[in-house]
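To whoever picks this up:

The parser on our side crashed when reading a file containing two proteins. I've narrowed it down to the boundary between the first structure block and the second sequence. Both blocks are reproduced below exactly, byte for byte. First block:
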Amino acid sequence: MESNLKANDAVLFIDRKGRRYLKRLAPGRKITIRGDILADDLIGADEGSRIKLSSGETFLILRPTYADLIPHLPRRAQVIYPKDTGPLLIWGDVFPGATVIEGGTGAGALTIALLRAVGPNGRVISYELREDFAATARENVAAFFGDAPNWTIKLRDLYEGFDETGVDRMFLDLAEPGRAVEQASRALRPGGVIVCYVPTALQLKDTVDSLRASRCFVEVESFETLLRPWHVKELSVRPVHRMVAHSGFIIVARRLAEPAVMAEQMPEESAEETSQDIDAAYPEGDED
């Protein structure tokens, strides 16, 4: 990618207080924040430049990273934020050339990340029930990713089943992913990875229970991510007063080759095993 800005690029305007404004360089249009500037005057400028608006206020201009983009993404539904997107892609093991199903498209935030991860030789198939969500996702992918001939969005109730088989990876961002476990098992190839994202502990338990009860999945694990930024300025080095704590639970599992010959279900965790986990987390003398 070249450093100079081009027509229709998304650009982040950052003021002296660090406030960020996402704008698009539409030829012939004005960009207005506190003062204005013609988009044509910025086309061709290097990102990383400082520019002045008509008010005299100076802004730093940069193309947004994925982490910059998502909080500013136009949306009608809550998006998956970058702190969870990274673990979703890594634990989901998305690779260039993969075929991926996405269940629940929302505003297209995860869709963009998946398209970037699978590359031009991979495929992303999104299932979305709501037309308004699908329309927003199409607009956001077109505006902030670009042409995506390897992306298909289907207005379908995925609980009725998927059209595809032999899929490498599947991501479900739904209220009840447990209801889609059997459908997922028919779509995924042996060894394929399913990743579910849910906001509440009740949904977490229901999803994990459904995966284990299906006898089609193994290696079921679940976790959440917490993000704590730090303030570093001269002699002041401390955590910031606010952090991004719980946003959702991530559940990951692998598809078995032969569900019918699956070994016995994993035994319930014993009190002794629970005690061992606690001892490992708090070595002797570290309880405080």
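<<boundary where parser fails>>
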Amino acid sequence: MKITPLALSVLALSTGIVLAKEKRGGGAGSKEKQKSAGRLHIDRYWGPKSCDDDDKAVAGKHLKMHYIGTIHASSKSGEKGKQFDSSRERGETFDFQIGTGQVIKGWDIGLLNLCKGAKAKIIIPPEMGYGDQGAGQDIPGGATLHFDIEVIDVTDEAPPGPDLFKEIDTDENGKLTKEEVEAFFQEKHGNGMPDGLWENEDKNKDGHISWEEFGGTKGDPPGVEL
């Protein structure tokens, strides 16, 4: 499942945070399983440990990053070790603004203060991930997640994003139908539209998502030519 701005799952539940000791490589096996549920673990295993503010992931900065997401060995649900997403396999970075609620809380907190060029392993409990509802077929409710991430770039300005509205609007009529959104998720992620997404996006409940309502990245309004 790809984590996109169109399918954000933001949880505001409080939880403890444990910063793992910095080291090259990470302990596996029983040590991984012993990490307690309900706590966020960050293990920075490669790259700079300190940097200027210009290269540091602080709230409000825009990050370009790569990640591989799997179900953690300690998870009480899901297939342990199963990969559910990888930006590296898609060949494109995931770009977002940190500390603004655009991503799951485990990322918004776990990536803070990492430097450009750093690599880290982050273990995210369900309370800071996708909670009891899960996300798609590969992330069941209550799953503890493991992300191996690399911070590619940190900037003050947002990089230009893809025009997802135009990509989803296959009939080019300037509004999205349920069928178009469902087909997009099936094609890109292999599963259907996340629960609650349509209700959240179709704000005026007219059965379509307009360009103005659309919460994902988008270009110019339909019909506007530069």
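After patching the parser it read the second block fine. The beta strands are 16-19, 39-46, 62-71, 83-86, 94-97, 119-124, 145-155, 175-176, 209-210. The chain has two domains: 5-155, 164-210.
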